[in-house]
Amino acid sequence: MRHLRLLTHVVEVARTGSIRRAAELLNLTPSAMNRRIQDLEAEIGTPLFERRPRGVKLTTAGEMFVRYARSQIADAERMRSQVEDLRGLRRGPIQIACSQALALDFLALRVAAFQKKHPKVVFDLKVMDHERALAALAAYDVDLALVHRPAMWPSLRVIASLPQRLVVITRSDHPLAAKKMLRLSDCVDYPAALPDRTLSGRQILDEVTTRRDLRLNMLAESNSFEMLRGLVFRCDMISFQIEIGAPTGNLGMGLVGRPIDTRDVPTADLVLCQLRGRTLPVAAATFAEILMKSLSEMRAGT
């Protein structure tokens, strides 16, 4: 598959913005890399890159060609996966972008169960906010994205979804822990550690508090759920997360989760999606079916 090697070269130059840097990463000399790109441009009949004093930038034709190249590389990986599947290998890798809330329990548990049956499969799991996750999906950097409240692009195909309530995380000895269900107004008087604005839970909170003219007593914010839980535990603050990452009840570390009434904060979907029109590699497609079944069972309450 020599043509795939050239496609990989073009994609790497586009990713790094530098012929020299791409050549170093692919163990080529810059002159050899540049010559191959020039030969391809001559064959196509138009420049793919605009040469600048410091690096290169894709032309419009180059952007089209890179999309084509990524699609071809992904199809080749799928074919290789299918061949290996026939030989009983199923190595993967299965590449997934997911929200932080999925990392600790939901996704890790299903990866563990899958690898018991298919021990040779390798997973590449990227924890990202929903915007970066969808960008990775569109760039063929991942096979699947499992994210909360994503923007729906025409290029996305939703294969499963699960409504999610917002949950308040508190210490077990906090006054709010005594209630089974919370109103958002219950939370305004307590010091809060909030997710930062790249995270969907914070975006929902900002929308709701602005509309209802409420003000949370924010003393800290972070893009790390682990940090937020540490602040809840060490500083006796409250924080917020979707329920798949903070189910109602004991969360460990002396922390508990309490759902917010949906009259105050409506549910928003956790979405499993892939790129529309893309046929997934065998291992990724098999794991996607497991995720779809799990989300369907959770939706049904089983």
Automatic annotation (TrEMBL):
Q: Which GO terms describe its molecular function?
A: DNA binding; DNA-binding transcription factor activity
What PANTHER family is this protein classified in? Answer: HTH-TYPE TRANSCRIPTIONAL REGULATOR YBHD
Q: Which UniProt keywords apply?
A: DNA-binding, Transcription, Transcription regulation
Q: Where is the HTH lysR-type domain?
A: 1-59
Taxonomically, the superkingdom here is: Bacteria
Q: Which residues form a coiled coil?
A: none
Any one Pfam family match given in the protein's UniProt record, by short name: LysR_substrate
In the record, which residues are listed under signal peptide? Answer: none
Task: State the Gene3D superfamilies in the record.
Answer: 3.40.190.290, Winged helix-like DNA-binding domain superfamily/Winged helix DNA-binding domain
Q: What is this protein called?
A: HTH lysR-type domain-containing protein
Role description: NodD regulates the expression of the nodABCFE genes which encode other nodulation proteins. NodD is also a negative regulator of its own expression. Binds flavonoids as inducers.
An annotated GO cellular component of this protein is: cytosol
Q: Which family does it belong to?
A: Belongs to the LysR transcriptional regulatory family.
